[in-house]
Amino acid sequence: MIPQQWEQLPDDLKYVPKWCIAAPDKSPFTTSGHRASVTNPSNWSDWYSTALTAAQWGNDAGIGFVLSEDDDFTCIDLDVKDNTPPEQLDRFWKIVQAFDSYTERSRSGRGLHIWIRGKVGMGCRRDGVEVYSQQRFIICTGDTLPGFAKPVEQRQELLDLLVAEIRAAAQTNHVELVEQDETITDEQLWQKAADASNGDKFKQLWTGDWAGIGYPSQSEADLSLLSMLCFYSKSNEQVRRLFRLSGLGQRDKAQKNNRYLDRTLAMIRGRQQREDAAVVMAQANAVQLVAQVAPQRLLPVATESTLEWPPGYVGELARWFYALAPRPVREVAIVSALGLVAGLYGRAYNISGSGLNLYIVLVARSAVGKEAMHSSISKLSHVMMNSGATAFSEFVDFSDYASGPALVKAISNSKSGSFVNVAGEWGRKLRKMSDDHTEGPMSSLRTVMTNLYQKSSAGTIVGGIGYSDKEKNIASTNGVAYSMIGETTPDTFYESLTNTMMQDGFMSRFIVIEYAGLRPEFNTANSIPIPGDLYEILLNGANAVMQCPPGGFRDVALSREAQIMLDAFDKHCDQQINATDDESWRQMWNRAHLKTLKVAGLMAVTDCPASPVVTEEHAEWALNLIHRDISIMRRKMSDGDVGDGDIVRERKLLATLADYLQHPISSGYKIPDEMRKSGVVARKYLQIRLQRTNSFVKHKLGQTLALDHTIRSLVDSGYLVEVAKDKVPPEWNFTGKCYRIVSLPDVL
Fold first, then answer.
1. Cα(261)–Cα(244) distance, rounded to whole angstroms?
2. What is the CB-side half-sphere exposure of residue 737 using CA atoms within 13 A?
3. What is the average pLDDT score of the chain?
4. What is the CA radius of gyration of the chain?
5. Within the chain, what is the greatest distance between any pair of CA atoms?
6. How does DSSP classify residue 143?
7. What is the sign, positive or negative, of the torsion defined by CA atoms of 35, 41, 42, 46?
8. Taking CA atoms, which of 236, 315, 322, 635 is between 20 and 30 Å from 713?
9. Taking the CB of residue 88, how many other CB atoms lie within 10 A of it?
10. DSSP 398
């Protein structure tokens, strides 16, 4: 019988006829029992027959894949031993995360095999990392690493970086010395070195006091002083001459001939050549690095709204709210209109088995006019009530709920069974909900809101709450529709989001609408009366809903064109969910189709309450809104603005580097902009930029160590290279730690 684990092998490998039986000593055999060659294809067979034969051989037999030049597979073998140090294990894990492809445990259960698409030619190895893509037999177990039961992904670019690092370390550090002319005098060179930021160290080495500085031997001090001299002069002869004038250069080995000095100079010049090549590459690619950033990063700050008005009466209502606002913002008006009609019609209508309640968050900077969301809905309520439509107030609620039971009680006491809660400073409340480890009033509110979202459909019941004091009991309610619209600033909102909020589906219930524009001018004509037809629509809608008995839902139909569009989107959502193991991303797409249906359904009901039908126009606008919502959250997750953990911190740091390359540095950082233009970033800059970022601040070891750990990870992954202090140009007048930005991932 074929071992069950072998079934877990990726299809990418299974059906390629390059399999052999793995003997107990790990050597390859044919299915006929002869030793197999890794260069003879006639010895290899298909997966199924090989696996079946191996199973018949007994428990000691395994199966393996032969890597050859005519395929595009590569295996990265991470060798774990009893004495493997923790820092090396950490590096192994970073390699697994970076390649993010099918990964399984080795036969021993200790090592790891990462399978990717890409070629490296002949293999290479260093420090427990082996890379092979030809003439190699790899035993396959199917014992997948949790979270990495994935297809074999194309990773040529990352593979090139890893192999270059391994092979560079194996090469000699020496180069052939080439003499160049002197460009400055000995006196000028000495003065430059003495006046530099490390001038005190230079002068102490010059005197020969290597022990006073703390060098364990004079040879290391010699290397340091020679490196300083080489920084200012390309002339080897000048460097030799000056070194022999120093206190360190008085030893016989430095004076009698050039052998000792030339060996050390060759090491330094070889390092300089590699560093110079990195500098040239970084400077030449600075524009290309910026171009790798997603297009929206390159756009200037928006000066006006980019979201189109909704079609039909929802659009008319949004336009009226816009006209009422002291500082009109289209997104604010649209959120207000959608929230109002969700509160009004959420309970009385169903689409695809769901009510029409919505959760919407408006994200915009302070002082742009978000308060109009409250004032415009409040004005409408007063207009309707003053006109005799007293029932209208039942559909709008401005209460600030401090716990789950308080919200359940409000719903139980609601006469309409459907209302929209207009919440101010929603980001602050979300921040209180963000502690995933504390059970309290705000945690209960988050739980209740999570459950209420799907309680608006026919036949659903919102559970009651029983207390020892029966007078405080809250009865259960049939068929309710709780909607919520809130406003917040970007920093408050995104910094409050946690991995759990994304993964348990809480945030996927929300539609996020962003306004990134400037503060609008004050609107002096903000007392426009409500259009008569709009007034009649809202009045009739409120009365009809109030007369609708509990459970008396009316279905919203879809036109043929809308049905086709929304069905296609539903399939697209399925594809996105099936394409990833990232729970945050899966949850976002999981409710995308439902949110689209709800928005489209609300527009259809508002246009024709008696017989609502979602048109192609309704569906198209709703799809655009939800695509924008997903795009916002995708960008924030990609940028590391949402959640925590090592991967999130790495994303945030990479996004910060991308942003750094695009814009001149503010004088407040006290860092020369020449550094940015050269593709060099100071640790000081990163410390300031990330000092308030949630994923760094909440790290158990603190923000500083979290930053250091993340930088090291990006160095290991080939995105950053530390710049030696003596290689920082003196004209920058900067003494802190610096890193050269070598590359950025394409996803940014």
1. 10
2. 11
3. 83
4. 33
5. 108
6. -
7. positive
8. 635
9. 17
10. -
Distance of CA 595 to the CA centre of its chain: 23
Cα dist from 209 to 218, 246, 394, whole Å = 9, 11, 85
Residue 692, number of CB atoms within 10 A of its CB? 11
Strands (E), 118-272: 124-126, 129-132, 136-140, 153-154
Distance between CA 695 and CA 703 in Å, rounded?
Answer: 9
Contact 445, 407 (CB under 8 A): yes
pLDDT at 698 over 60: yes
Tokens of 524: 């002096």
**636 contact partners, CB below 8 Å, separation of at least 6:** 494, 497, 642
Calpha distance 492→114 (Å, rounded) = 39
Q: Which two tokens stand for residue 518?
A: 């400037």
β-strand pairing of 112-117 with 153-154: parallel
Q: Does the pLDDT value for residue 250 go beyond 90? A: yes
Compute the Cα dihedral for 320, 323, 327, 331 and give only its sign: positive
Q: For 517, left (φ over 0), alpha (ψ -120 to 50), or beta?
A: beta
| 458 touches 392 (CB < 8 A) | no
Q: Provide the whole-model pTM.
A: 0.57
What pLDDT digit, counting tens, does each position of 621-665 carry?
999 999 999 888 877 776 677 766 777 888 889 888 988 888 888
Residue 512 CB partners (closer than 8 Å, separation 6+): 360, 361, 363, 629, 632, 633
- Kindly give the residue spans of alpha helices, DSSP state H, lying in 349-498: 372-386, 404-413, 426-433, 441-452, 490-496
Helices (H), 455-591: 490-496, 499-503, 532-547, 560-578, 583-590
* Low-confidence winner among 165-174, 210-219, 413-422 (lowest mean pLDDT): 165-174
What the block records as the tokens of 375 is 């004032």
Task: Count CA atoms closer than 13 A to 583's CA, side-chain side.
Answer: 12
